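Troubleshooting: if your tokenizer reports a length mismatch, compare your output against this known-good record of 421 residues.
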Amino acid sequence: MKRSILLAAFAAINLGVTFSFQLYVLAVLGPGEQTDALFAGMALPQVVLTIVSGSLMHVLVPLLSGESISKLRANAWSFFALVGISFAGLAAILYIMAPWWVPILVPGFSKVGIDLTVELTRIQLIGMVFTAINGVQWAAYHAQNKFIWAEMSSVICSAISLAILLITLPKYGVVGAAWLITVRMALQTILLIPGMGSPSKPNFRSSSTLIAWRRIKPLLYGTAYYKTEPLIDRYILSTATSGGLSLYYLSQQIYAAANQIINKAIAAPFVPQMSAYHKASNFYQLRKEYYQRILFVALISFCSIVLLATVGDKILAALLNHSSFDISRVRELWQIMLWLSGAFIGGGIAQITSTAFYACGDTVTPTRLSIITYTIYIPSKFIGYSVAGIYGLALTTSAYYIINLVVQLIILNIKLAKSEL
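Known-good structure output:
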């Protein structure tokens, strides 16, 4: 419990600083063409990282857990090299091709907005390489049950980047902000090196590498499809009024930050433990702790939404006072968050259900379920936006996350019940 509280505190501080970074950019510049370009430029790098880095964590932590330190670190360096080379090549291709694919992503932007988005995207593609490598480093730390320094390093890097932003934003604008995001990830890569141990020659044909590839393939194929949501959102919202994309993105980031705290404090530390229960066939204890965490996260999520509905507008107004936000934009942000609240509830609890699947070595079932629900979700997004604008898009997103969660809960309960027989 102590570790969970400490991790939650570090995660909250880190995400609070990261959120302050984005909020400060919006507060100083105001929601508009520049901020829309910055957040649109984040879209593809974030999607690629979600697909690959997220999959790496789900696969590598259970795989590396329980191994000897020497074997764990040797495998970690192999994955470090493999991911670094792969992402560097991918980033180079996307960087060169940016003037061709960025306009397709944001067709509603002006020529100036598209040019700025290309520039900001290229900067953040460099940061994508470091973020991908960080995913391997985090997996190595988590597999060794060393959660604290991983979180502390992130807090340090975020705090340094925010401090520099406060000084440089008025002079360098969104371009400087984009470079700071990249520098922050590079600095974190350096700070996480000690946990990897002494560098070793990578072995791309080791048994662990082959097992990891076998497990990660269904995740990559599936998530490459259903993790494209940010790209679709940017495409749709590029036709919204100036600043609308920024407000929607900010709403998503607030919920993503809260869910990250839940993941780091409750879901992630449970992976090695759940993997050990599964390997020992201790399914009773696995089910017991799984249900406890589900109920705990559900309680936190519902209480948070009640708080948002009752006093959320006042809190946002106080936070954004003396900024470039006017009161109508603050209220618009609050309303988007209300309609989007299902994504927070469903996404937070789904982290526990997904963790349970992955810890049991099952990466296929949750991927297939998400593919099916996402296929229905894509046309619904366009319909929701055409009927009710940004609010319709937010409501459709909420419905998707809740439905996906319910389906996962049903399938996982059946799976765990069969395991006890």
